Structures are given as C-alpha cells and as structure tokens.
C-alpha cells in the first residue's frame, strides 16, 4: 500500500480497535433498551466513555459522544451564544468548524466574532488576547468566550494552554479547547481545566465517525441534536455502540510516550529535506510542535505537484487540512501567521503515527529525490 504519512487527516484503525468493533457489531441490542441485550450494549458504551475520559483527563459523567469533532465544536459555540455570550474570541489557527460556526452565530444572533491573531511562530498573540479580555464589557456582551485549538493540525504548533486557562479564568470567561489533534500526542492535564474539550476517535487509530465532547458541570449547554433522551438528554440519537467501543480501545492503547518517538523520524525527514532544498521553509519550527507533524513549502514549486509526484511513488501526504482539499494557495494557518508569501504555491504536510517506522524517513527522502530529479529534467 505504500507509505502513509497523513495521520493528522485520519490515522488507520488499530487492529485491536477493529477487533473490538467487530465484537460490538455482532452484539445485538440498542444501548437505550432496558433488556439484557440492551444492557450489554450500554456496558460497551460506558466502558468506552470511561476510557476516553481517562485519556482526556476529565470525568466520564461529563463526556458526551458525538459523530465527530465538528459536531462537538458546533454544539459548544451554539450553546454559549444561546446562554448570552455575544463576543466570541476564535483563534485564527483554529479548524474551520469553529470559525464557520462563530460566523454563522454572528449572522443569526448578532454575536461579535473576534479573531485572535497569531505570531509568525504559529503561537497565538496572548498579549492581544489579554488586552481584549481586559476591555471586555460583560454587561453588554455577557461572558467572553474563547475557542482555541490546542495543537494546529497543519503546523503542529502547540499553544500555551496553561496561560490561556489563566487568562480566560481571570475574566470569568468560557473556554473551549479543540484537542482533536492533541489527544494521544501530548499530555492533556491542563486542557481538562477548560469548560469544554472536543476530541475525535479517528485521529488516534479509532474509527471515523465518532467524537466526544467534555462539558464542565458549570458550563452552559444547549443540545444541538434533539429528539430522544440519549446521553442524559444532551445529544439525541441512537448511540454508535461499535464506534464508541472502538474509540475506547484506541484511547486505552494510544501512548504519548510512543508518539514522541515519531519526532526522530520527522526530524530526520526535515534534515534530509534541508540538505536538498536550500529554499525550504518549515512552518512553526521555532515553536513547540506535535512530535509527528511537519508543514513545509518549497516556494517555487506547487504543493499539488509535489503531492501528486509523491503519490505516484506510493507516498501519501497532504497539502493541509483534509476538509480543505482542492483549495489552492497558502493555507489558513500560514496566512494567519503572516507567512503567505513564503508559500505562494502551497505547502506539504507530513504527519506520522503509530504505524510509522524509522526507515520511513529514508523511504520518503528517496521518493522526494526521485520526483525532484524528474522535475529538474522536465524543466531543462
């Protein structure tokens, strides 16, 4: 199948996850049914809830299963606006699910959206955020709301979660951490201090189509999905028992220490690229980054051309967010960092995971060398 280097888009389902899901699929019963088969299905759900909550560092009773991270983020932003928060601070480095929902709430409810600027490093400008929160008029806008992706899915840059918790807490604000890319890759002890935390199964080798949302007992909440009484009436709809069981196994299996080993592979790839590409730009290299992620550009070459060349060599990479595939030019993250001129033709993202091996660095660099030689021959 070739070399897979797109784990930030979706990490392949782990073998033990598939086994757990198959077992759940052949177990009859709706998790909401009171009979024995229903109780067996319910146990799979609650076991999964305990495992995911433990990995997140939160209380299981405060965890709601969703269909994905997008639903979780959408739910939170609707909830805070419904509760009276009319000034939404959204990170410029966030996933479109947060930014787009905030903009939708602005159009529908008149909420004001403030985009938190980023520095060239990829870190958020927390001095700006601190100043704006200090000027916040709670009587006019209600409690301030801040949404931040703990780790950017493109650059891998990790934000200062502890500092953000303090800033928002000092102003009696509400805080959402999008931890979709952070789960299983870095410790989340501080992240659990937020009012809301969103995660997704398929980023850690669990199944696609399952997410989870932590909601602090004191945080406002409005159900996005209404109908039945599932999830303590917080999210209606038949529970995805097999998906949740798989999520739970993935949460038990994933290891931050194991993921840290991917940094050696990432660093070897970056070192090799630097030796071959004098104009190479690596975004976020000067800031704390996820150990598995590299986002880089060769300014005079289209990222789509590089990606297709690598694909022909059996190497799967991306040009950024999977949900933004097909778009050209600088990514949202690079633009927010003020570095769009460094990647006028786009950038390439490599993201490693539990299937990655040390020899993957050599495989990638050999493929890169081949496609670059072919490009030079074509230009001659």
How would you explain this protein's 3D organization?
The protein has a 7-stranded mixed beta sheet, with helices on both faces. The chain is built from 14 helices and 12 strands. Helix 3 packs parallel to helix 4 (96-109). The chain folds into 2 domains: 3-11 and 257-379, Aspartate Aminotransferase, domain 1; 15-253, 3-Layer(aba) Sandwich (Aspartate Aminotransferase, domain 2). The chain has helices at 15-25, 36-56, 69-82, 96-109, 126-134, 138-141, 161-170, 230-233, 241-253, 256-260, 262-276, 303-312, 332-336, 360-379; strands at 3-4, 63-66, 87-91, 112-116, 145-149, 174-178, 196-200, 211-215, 281-282, 293-297, 315-316, 348-351.
Short descriptors:
14 helices; Aspartate Aminotransferase, domain 2; Aspartate Aminotransferase, domain 1; 380 residues; seven-stranded mixed sheet; single chain; alpha/beta
Query: Which CATH-level-2 architecture of the largest domain?
Result: 3-Layer(aba) Sandwich
Mean pLDDT: 93
Give the overall form: globular
The CATH superfamily title of the largest domain? Type I PLP-dependent aspartate aminotransferase-like (Major domain)
User: What structural class do the secondary elements suggest?
Assistant: alpha/beta
The level 1 CATH classification of the largest domain is: Alpha Beta
What share of residues is helical? 40-55%
The value of Rg in angstroms is 21 Å
Strands of the widest sheet, in order across it, are: 2-8-7-6-5-3-4
Strand content: 5-15%
CATH topology of the largest domain: Aspartate Aminotransferase, domain 2
- DSSP summary, beta strand count: 12
SSE order, one letter for each helix or strand: EHHEHEHEHHEHEEEHHHHEEHEHEH
User: What's the structural domain tally?
Assistant: 2
């Amino acid at each position: 199948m070739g070399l897979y280097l797109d784990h930030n888009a979706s990490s392949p389902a782990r073998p033990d996850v598939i086994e757990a899901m198959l077992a759940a699929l052949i177990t009859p019963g709706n998790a909401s049914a009171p009979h024995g088969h229903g109780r067996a299905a319910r146990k799979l759900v609650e076991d999964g809830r305990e495992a995911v909550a433990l990995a997140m560092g939160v209380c299981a009773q405060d965890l709601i299963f969703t269909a994905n991270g997008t639903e979780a983020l959408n739910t939170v932003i609707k909830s805070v606006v419904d509760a009276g928060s009319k000034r939404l601070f959204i990170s410029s480095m966030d996933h479109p699910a947060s930014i787009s929902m905030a903009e939708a709430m602005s159009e529908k409810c008149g909420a004001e959206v403030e985009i938190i600027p980023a520095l060239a490093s990829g870190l958020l400008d927390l001095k700006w955020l601190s100043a704006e929160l200090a000027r916040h008029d709670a009587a006019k806008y209600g409690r301030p709301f801040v949404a931040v992706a703990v780790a950017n899915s493109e650059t891998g840059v990790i934000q200062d979660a502890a500092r953000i918790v303090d800033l928002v807490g000092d102003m009696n604000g509400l805080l959402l951490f999008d931890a979709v890319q952070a789960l299983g890759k870095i410790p989340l002890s501080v992240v659990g201090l937020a009012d809301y935390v969103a995660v997704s199964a398929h980023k850690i080798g669990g199944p696609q189509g399952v997410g989870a949302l932590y909601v602090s007992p004191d945080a406002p909440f409005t159900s996005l999905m209404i109908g039945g009484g599932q999830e303590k009436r917080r999210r209606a709809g038949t529970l995805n028992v097999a998906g949740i069981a798989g999520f739970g196994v993935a949460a038990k299996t994933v290891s931050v220490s194991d993921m840290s080993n991917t940094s050696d592979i990432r660093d070897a790839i970056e070192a090799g690229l630097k030796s071959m590409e004098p104009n190479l730009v690596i975004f976020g290299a000067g800031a704390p980054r996820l150990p598995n992620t590299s986002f880089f550009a060769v300014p005079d070459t289209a990222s789509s051309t590089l990606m297709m060349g690598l694909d022909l060599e059996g190497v799967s990479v991306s040009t950024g967010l999977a949900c933004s595939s097909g778009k050209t030019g600088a990514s949202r993250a690079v633009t927010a960092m003020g570095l769009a001129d460094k990647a006028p033709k786009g950038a390439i993202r490599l993201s490693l995971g539990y299937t990655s091996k040390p020899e993957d660095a050599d495989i990638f660099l050999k493929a890169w060398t081949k496609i670059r030689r072919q490009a030079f021959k074509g230009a001659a």
